[in-house]
Amino acid sequence: MFGDLFEEDYSSMSNDHYGKGKKLKTKALEPPAPREFTNLSGIRNQGGTCYLNSLLQTLHFTPEFREALFSLGPEELGSLEDKDKPDAKVRIIPLQLQRLFAQLLLLDQEAASTADLTDSFGWTSDEEMRQHDVQELNRILFSALETSLVGTSGHDLINRLYHGTIVNQIVCKECKNVSEKQEDFLDLTVAVRNVSGLEDALWNMYVEEEVFDYDNLYHCGTCDRLVKAAKSELDDLEYMYDLFSVIIHKGGCYGGHYHVYIKDVDHLGNWQFQEDKSNPDVNLEDLQNEEEIDDPLMILKAVLLQEESNLIPVDQLGQKLLKKIGISWNKKYRKQYGPLRKFLQLHSQIFLLSSDESTVSLLKDSSLQAESDIRRNDQQLLKTLTSEPPGLNDRPSCPHWFDINDSKVQPIKEKDIEQQFQGKESAYMLFYRKSQLQRPPEARANPRYRVPCHLLNEMDAANTELQIQRAECDSTNNNFELRLHLGPHYHFFNGALHPVVSQTESMWDLTFDKRKTLGDLRQSIFQLLEFWEGDMVLSVAKFVPAGLHVYQTLDGDHLTLCEIEIADGEDIFVWNGVEVGGIQIPAGRDCEPLLLNVLHPATSSEEEQCQRLIDSPYVFPSNAEIGSVFTACAIPDGVILVNSAESVGEESWTTIPKEDLKKTFREQGLRNGSSLLIQSSNDGDSLLTKRGKWITSVNEVDWLQVKNLCQLDSEGEQVKISATLNTVVFDIRIKAIKELKLMKELAEDSCLRPIDRNGKLLCPVPDNYTLKEAELKMGSSLGLCPGKAPTSSQLFLFFAVGSDVQPGTEMEIIVEETISVRDCLKVMLEKSGLSGDAWHLRKMDWCYEAGEALCEEDAALKELMLSSGDTLLLIEGKLPPLGLLKVPVWWYQPRGPLHRWKSHQDQTNCTFSQGGVWRANSIQDAPSDVHAEVSLRYLGDVEISEDATLGELKSQAMTLPSFLEFSIPSPAFLRAWTVESRRPGRLLRVHCQRLREYKLGQRTEICLEPLQKEENLGPQHVLLRTQMRLPGKRAYALPVDLVWDTARGWTAGSLRHQVADFYSLPVEKIEIAKYLPEKFEWLPVPSWNQQITKRKKKKKQDNLQGAPYHLKDGDTIGIKNLLADDDDDFSTVRDDIGREKQKAFALGKNKSQEALRVRSGDVPSGAETPARPRGPEASLSIHVGSFR
């Protein structure tokens, strides 16, 4: 039965036997996991404490031990809060056991920790990593508890619950004298090898008679000589015991793993198997009857009462029992109550056995009592008895078993226990309870039963804290950050999207739950962006060196963000899905912009070509042909070479064959940062070998060129200094000074500065850097310049006056990184020879334009993330204080019968005319329309708080001197628009809304349009320019403003009814269309309200905010009266002319204009584990204080 339990098996040893010296602890930021479906708590393994966990769970599930421990209050044990006080008498071990048991009962966590308990044992981390024998631990722990409880009411707790006595009798065969000897025990050890089962092992060890004879005679005291005798144990029929805990060991004698099977006496856990959870309902009436069936006294009484004389042979009693309940006594009750005859003997107060124990009957007193108790429910009981199938042991009404394996708790069936008495994983220690022990009804399924009040309060508070921690952790784990890039705040140039003002104002951070759907995200953004008008499309975007690029549009509003694989920190571009600033945006990976370095010879008026190369960055779509480089650089023809070197500091130019010029950049394998060289085909013989390699020894370069820039008389001298990537800059500088034969004083007052391809001196390189750390390529040119390089706490900055800066004209300055913006501004003004306080600093962006202002004048440069080499611009004009806006105000009045705002491509040709009026000029050979001119007149600047309302902004604008020539009665007669690219952009509609809520930013400009009557537009109003088509003519009447109330929806039907009412026409007798000025086309709005989608065959309400209309404030709506004009055409003669000019303009673009459009100025930067030798076995001990 016990199989090969005693064979050593190293393969089954758990890792906790060979610990690494570390405790396995839960992540500090995450609360412990809640209990699983069994509703029972495990215990975390500290590395090698599986044996301790198994014993503690057994003691915890022993109700008598647990409740006896709980009965000891703080007045006897003391308090853990006082354990560090020198004079306090605190019994730490029992207190920690109480606390651990309370956690196992009540704390909602998957597994409890024994760290505090093992600390109270005096164990170190090494002890917690070392495995010991669980029986040895049991004895040592009981001893420690006895010592800890001296002088308390629980001083005899262990003795009362676990003490037993073995009585050995030796009977002399001669005089029949009986000699008895008693031995105390807490546990019994039995030898199980070569026996069939545990009962045989117990019999062999303690019951079987031992005979003293022959060479092993017994000395009888009465006979006073050696005699034959027999030794045996007393047959104790007083008690029967039930197995309730099986501690199981897997492995060999020197290690392995422990876990425990435990019977849940108090029904504290949920024994239901996970696959059975679908049918959890239990009939309460059946449950009560099943409890009666599980009681053998009730069953036997019921069977005997059915007999006329209440007398029946014992053998027939067993048969009648089988007939009634469908299962025999041995299968149903023997394990728990023993043999039937022995059960009847133990209950002699109820059953009367004959002298030969062949028949049994009920005693008269118990018969009368049983009859009155049982016959009330006799019919119901017998019905239950005859209908119940076999296998009642598996019903949830009786205590059930669980496998507790450290942190994991799983339900098991009784048949699983039988498998643990054979093989490598076998029962090692068994715990029994007296069968007669009955639990009170109030203890059933009640984990709070007999738990002291102070522990109940502590566990309740801990559970509340756990709930809070889990809620916070759940929010943290399921929330992620999204970066929203708002389309209206971006413009498209140089092949990518760039912020109009600054990255800060163009991007919003949003924390969102990734379990929510895309539709939820869209709705949240709508609520966040109150100013948003029209359709909203969300697309995944990413930053590439050229700027922001849109990749894929997010679809499926019913899908969660996890399902559409949105990542934490994802960039989301919010736009209308078509255009930004009037330009259609290329999207997708195929057209991803590439930032390439293009080298080409500089041209000179004296020579046809100079040998100096110009290195310029260009942006190209990935799917563009390589040959487009010629167009971008305005070079008619030539040879293109690509740098195929992979190592830093090396160059290897390879010619691209002419037939490959039709390939795309991606097909050619080019990526961001790749270098191209354009060489005129006329110089092919002098610059290229026949194999197409650039003639240079640059692949073998091991030197740097240092140019003397310290002395004017010797400037221009240069030397080559041999070096490697690991050479220190200081050594190169000293060698250069020696070889240039300069004054030794320069060793203390000079520095090396890289020289770029255009001859500009860059930031000085620190002396302690290696060439690799300084990112210097072999063959680079360095300038030896006067002055020390900045220290690690200093910044080297370039600065210039004004926003029109030419590369190479900047001034330089070295300042401490802790200097404030205000002090840095003073130093720069002093060095520039400027005075006054009406200046501020701005960062220069990557395209050499004034970028974000340094608003926090008291902040240190280090705090603003400025670094050496950055360029700052001195801009005239003082920044408004924080919370104040300086808003330029313009006067706007639409002109002409068909006013139209200019497209984005016209913006570059706007000029500031005399009198402060902006007018849009036509591009040569481009379509233009004099009637579509946008006229903006500058009125002045208004300084106003962000907390002021739109109405207050209008009122303050009316006080400007330039405004006095206009006769405007009140601010309600003004309509406000933002100015975007020198034309009206977004309509600011709510008169009482605060400016802060419009997200205007520091560089927003406003234009004001005069009205004929007061107007106060609400958020549901849309302003449209309507024009009635003249009958019989391809022309329209002057535009008239129409305010459309979209409270009933953005549907075509709603708009048609509004237009029909406005013009007093029948709704069925009008046709309307939206004008697309950038295409000179009209888009008819259908007369039906619903459209059928092909995919789902479902009716979907149309929305004019979405594609293809994207209706918004200021759009032009053409109207035809079908009573007077039934022509389907909406276009005009001017539209025909405009389309023709567009076609001519597209065909007539010359190459230099194309190069100007795409060119940019600068670039931003398992083998098996060998057997381990066994060390000496360490002793196990628990340190206990003295309480005597």
Automatic annotation (TrEMBL):
Statement: the UniProt record of this protein carries the keyword Methyltransferase: no
Protein name: Ubiquitin carboxyl-terminal hydrolase 40
Basic and acidic residues composition bias: residue spans: 1151-1160
Cytoplasm found in the keyword field: no
GO biological process, one term: protein deubiquitination
A GO molecular-function descriptor: cysteine-type deubiquitinase activity
One Pfam family it belongs to: UBL_USP40
The USP domain, residue ranges: 41-435
Record-linked PANTHER family: UBIQUITIN CARBOXYL-TERMINAL HYDROLASE, UBIQUITIN CARBOXYL-TERMINAL HYDROLASE 40
GO cellular component, one term: nucleus
Domain of life according to the entry: Eukaryota
Gene3D superfamilies in alphabetical order: Cysteine proteinases (3.90.70.10)
Signal peptide bounds: none
EC supergroup of this enzyme: hydrolase
Organism field: Neophocaena asiaeorientalis asiaeorientalis (Yangtze finless porpoise)
PROSITE patterns documented for this protein: USP_1, USP_2, USP_3
Reactions listed under catalytic activity: Thiol-dependent hydrolysis of ester, thioester, amide, peptide and isopeptide bonds formed by the C-terminal Gly of ubiquitin (a 76-residue protein attached to proteins as an intracellular targeting signal)
Keywords: Hydrolase, Protease, Thiol protease, Ubl conjugation pathway
Sections of the chain in a coiled coil: none
Residue span of region Disordered: 1148-1188
Family named by the database record: Belongs to the peptidase C19 family.
EC number in record: 3.4.19.12
